[in-house]
Design goal:
The protein is mainly β and about 140 residues long. It has one domain: RlpA-like domain (Barwin-like endoglucanases), CATH 2.40.40. The protein contains 2 helices and 6 strands; from the N terminus they run αβββββαβ. A 6-stranded mixed β-barrel has the order 1-5-2-4-3-6. About 35% of the residues are buried. Its EC number is 4.2.2.-.
Length: about 140
């Protein structure tokens, strides 16, 4: 199930949309990610936010913990990935804009907003399936 449709103040929503990957409008039936290939069937993901909010990312943009972005060690910056929490089935499309994670055996660091959408912010880490999107 693709997680969409957050209720946010209009100015906050406009700012986030400008800095994040395309998302499906609430209730839309089409998926915005045509999967090119699965990268990891079960990888560990964590999230980052407050300590990095406002700092520069690897691609030169300012990190926004409310955007739909992620950090990966090797994927091309600007790549879009479909991330699925294998424990609860929640999915979201994220844009790679940073490098990392640099902690343990983790394959992906997602923004605070993405962790909320995937349902693991309180737990801190989750097992996820990563798929590369076309285009």
């Amino acid at each position: 199930m693709l997680k969409t449709g957050y209720l946010l103040p209009p100015l906050c929503f406009a700012f986030m949309m400008a800095a994040s990957a395309p998302v499906v409008a609430a209730g839309a039936s089409s998926n915005v990610c045509a999967v090119q290939r699965t990268l990891h069937h079960s990888a560990k993901a964590s999230w980052y936010g407050p300590g990095f909010h406002g700092r520069k990312t690897a691609n030169g943009e300012t990190f926004n913990m409310y955007a739909l972005t992620a950090a990966h060690k090797t994927l091309k910056l600007g790549s879009r990935i479909l991330v699925e929490n294998v424990e609860n089935g929640l999915q979201i499309v994220l844009r790679i804009n940073d490098r990392g994670p640099y902690h343990g055996d983790r394959a992906l660091d997602v923004s605070k907003r993405a962790a909320d959408a995937l349902g693991f912010r309180d737990d801190g880490v989750a097992r996820v399936r990563l798929s590369l999107c076309n285009g």
